[in-house]
Amino acid sequence: MQEVQALEFRKITDDITVSPQITADHLQEIADAGYRAVICNRPDGEGADQPTFDEIAAAAKAKGLEVRYQPVTSGKVRDEDAEAFGKLLRELPGPVFAYCRTGTRSATLWSLSQANALAPATILAATKGAGYDMAGVVRRIVNGGKTPTDEGDAKFDVVIVGGGAAGIAVASSLKARKPGLDIAILDPADVHYYQPGWTMVGGGVFEAATTARTMGSLIPQGVHWIKSAVAAFEPQNNAVVLDGCRVVKYDRLIVCPGLKLDWHGVEGLVDTLGKNGVTSNYRYDLAPYTWELVSKMREGRALFTQPPMPIKCAGAPQKAMYLSGDHWFRTGRLKDIDIQFMNAGGVLFGVKDYVPALMDYVKKYDASLNFFHNLIAVDGPGKTATFKVSKPDEEPTEVTVDFDMMHVCPPQVAPDFIRVSPLADAAGWVDVDQATLRHKTYDNIWSLGDVMNAPNAKTAAAARMQAPVVAENVVADTRGLSPHAVYNGYGSCPLTVEKGKIVLAEFGYGGALLPSFPKWVIDGTKPTRAAWLLKEQILPPVYWKAMLRGKEWMAKPESVSAG
């Protein structure tokens, strides 16, 4: 007797599950799992071992299930097929179980039928989670489920996804090396921000407006700016699909859209940001509120949170704490304020050489360090924050803490359109070689900045070093040469421990110290006035006038010879 193939429930959403071919014997299990309707998308007679739809229908009806036959030829899902599938989903009682030979046709029909209701990244993530790759119909998904009639392709030598620090810097570095390159930057934003300045805004040092410039004023001369968001990638076709289903083709692609601040990752946080004493220096519009809270606070408890890594500028959550503590110290209020640092990780700072200097300030501000505390919920009106406490070798617990002021560093993930793309690793980050920053699978794709998976600190200083490496290697590739510039993992985190002094942490892969200056100029392991002047007066113009313009001051890439 032939053994019955095990039934596969490949759930896409709560309303729809798809599956490879089923038999009549599976219908009881489908009914027991709570499904109320079955759709068959496989034409009768497609395979020799395939039960007919009539057999499936009889068994389904005997189990009290609604059943529909919507056969679709393999590889030929038409627009009208998708519309008919969507109509069935609206008419049938749910949840619905759909099947074909492998489940791919059913997943494709669902994807196209939902294209007007759901974001492309949501559709791609849902089908990917069920084990189906919708890369073959991504343009149709982006086009509202319809087959595009006019692709209107534009074509460039180099396409750069993202017009932040990394994108504009690498465009400028490319132009400096090879002026004739035809380059396009894809970014929908109108404004470009100097994000490292927001810590200083929250500390009452910078005005927020000084950290913003119009995007148009920064795009390098001769570089095309396509003001549109990316919906999906087709690396097999050397194509990027934009919102609205426009397609941009490339010879070489550089991916650097930054990361996503997942404000919704903490229950109740979005509803209370910017009020009820809840703020964050990770947003341009909220950094001034940080300073408003700090300057007005006379007594009470101040919480400073840090989520699990990776995050951009891992020192930023504690920088906010130090500058706040310094203000309260200078104004004589510190004795009445309880500072609590709530860190999801297990150490104050990942490179141990800088910890002693930082601990001196933790003691100075009488701050309590709470490790393995991850913020999961906020009640703004109630002024409480709930943390999941996951200490090693202990069962996780939850603790709720009252606050008068709270500075939140949100959880951070790769952007949705990156996480669901063929460029991503299992964690959702762009998968690159950590030395050359070239993609591990696609030879004509590079990545830099916060979005890629090299194990370095995600800082603007890191992007400043990465841009020349990527530019050097892309230009080498255009000349038929192997990548020879290497990135050593350099990142810098100027830790503002008090107004007027900074611990200048500079390090590379593995926590190796990589100081830019001799110790007699700046000893990065100690708080110095010189490092403060660097942060306050020198680094902003270096960012605007050098890094974004292809002037690689103190950022020349290291090279290795082949062989």
TrEMBL record:
Species of provenance: Mameliella alba
GO BP annotation list: sulfide oxidation, using sulfide:quinone oxidoreductase
Beta-lactamase hydrolase-like protein phosphatase-like domain location: 8-116
Gene3D superfamilies referenced in this protein's UniProt entry, alphabetically: FAD/NAD(P)-binding domain (3.50.50.60), Protein tyrosine phosphatase superfamily (3.90.190.10)
Keyword Transit peptide: yes
Protein name: Pyridine nucleotide-disulfide oxidoreductase
Requisite cofactors: FAD
Keywords for the protein's UniProt record, in alphabetical order: FAD, Flavoprotein, Oxidoreductase, Quinone, Transit peptide
Annotated FAD/NAD(P)-binding domain residues: 156-274
Presence of keyword Oxidoreductase: yes
Molecular functions (GO terms): FAD binding; hydrolase activity; quinone binding; sulfide:quinone oxidoreductase activity
